[in-house]
Fold this protein.
Amino acid sequence: MLVGMSREADVSAHPEEPGAPASTPQDLLERVAAGGQAAFSELYDQFAPRVFGLVKRLLRDHSQSEEVTQEVFLEIWQTATRFDAEKGAAVSWILTMAHRRSVDRVRSSQSSRDRDVRIGIRDHHPDYDHVSETIEIRLEHERVEKAMCRLTELQRQAVSLAYYGGYSHSEVATMLSLPIGTVKTRLRDGMIRLRDEMGVAS
Amino acid sequence: MTSRNDDLAAQSGAYALNTLTEEERAAFEAYLAESDEIRTETTELSDTAAVLGMAIDPVTPPPALKANLMAMIAHTPQLPREVETVDDAATTSATVTPLADAAILWTEPSAESHTAQQSAQTSASPAETKAQARWFARPATALAAVAAAVALIVAGGVVADSIGRTSLQETSFVAQQADQLASINAASDSQRLVSTVAGGATATFMWSGQLGASVVIVDGLEQLPAHQVYELWYIDSAGARPAGLMYASENGTTWRVLEGEMAPGDGVGVTIEPEGGSDTPTTEPIVVFESA
C-alpha cells in the first residue's frame, strides 16, 4: 500500500512568515508555491478585485463571475509551483489566467454570444467613463487609452473585441467582416504597437 | 522557416488575447518551444494584454468568496514543482493515500476464480448474495466504508503525468477532467470510499453532493485486451446509467471523472464491457460503491 505525504508535513516543512511586510506578487507566489496559506491570503487581497473586475467585465453575470474568480484563485494555488518569473511577471501570469478562464467560460455558454455577434459590435473598451478612485488605476486607464489611440481603427477594434469582449478570432472576423487571417495579423500588429507604445518589454 | 511556421508565428497576438481555439492554442504552445524569438514576442504581448486588464476597474468580490477559497486550499493539493522525467511523474501519480481502514471488498458472487480475493475480504451479507441477476438494481450491496475526506490523493501528480503523455487533443480533455477532479477534491462536502478490486487494485470513489459529481481512482488497474473497456455506471433504484469509459493507465493510477450528474444516494459501479461500451451493464461489476 502506498502512503502519501500528509499536507501537515508539507506545511511544516515550509513555515510561513506572517510578518513579512509589503510583499511583491512574485514573493507571494513563491511562498504560495511552498504551501503558504497566509501568503495566498495576502495575494488574494492584492489581486481579487483585479481578477473579479476583469472576469465580470467579460462574463457580466455576477454569480458566474464569482465562480470563475474562485476557479482562477484555486488554479493559482494549485499551479503556483509552476510559475516562473523568468517567463513573465506575476501580475501577467494571474491576469492571463483570469482572462483565459473567463474566455473559456464565455465560449462554453455560446448561445447568447451568437446573438451578440449577429447584432454586431457592442461597447468593448474599458470603462473610461467611470472615474476611478485611485491614481494608479487612472494612470493605467490613461496609459492604455493613449496607446489605443495610436492603433489603426481596425487594430483597435480587433484588439478591443478580443480582449474586452472575449471574442474568438472567428467571431471578431464575422463582426468586422474580415478574413480570419487578416484578423490574426491585425491582432498581432496591434498588440505589437501597444507593446511599443506602452513600453512593455521583457 | 516553413509557411506553416509563418502561420503559427502570426498568431502570437491572437494567442496573447486568448482568441484561439483550444486546438490552435495547443499547436501554438508546441511551436513556442521551438522558437526563442516568437516565445519572447509572445511573452511581451501577453504582458501587454495584462496591461489592458489593469485598465479595467477593479471590483471587490463578496467576502464569502475568500472564506470559501481559504477553506478549499486547505484541502487542495498543489502541482509538484516540475515534471522532470516520466519516472518522476509516475512516482508522484502513484502517491495515493488510502484512508479507509475499513475498506471492504466487492463480493464477486460466482467466485471460484477469485479465491484469493475472497480470502482477503470481509463477509458478504446474505442479502448480497440474493439478487445477482441485476446487481445494478440493488445499489445497497457491496458496501465500502465511508472514510472522512481528510487526506488527499496527490491529484497534481496525476494531472501532470497525464498531460505529459497524451496527445494535444487529449490534453484538453485531461485538463478538463483534472479541473473537475480538483473541484470534487476541494468541495467542502467531498467524501470518499476505498475498496479493493479483483487482482489487488485499490479503488477510491470520491464525490461531492453539492457538485453532483464524482470520480473513480484505481491504483493498479489491470490492462484489458483491445476489444474490452472499463465502463462506469451511476446506479439508482431505476437501474444503471452509463457514466463514461475508462482505460487502464500504464503507470499505476487510473482515474476518471464520471459523466452526467450524480443524484444524492446514487451508487457507482465499474464493469468490463465490449469495446465502445454498453447501454446497460452486461457483466458483474469489478467494484461497486454506495454513497448513501
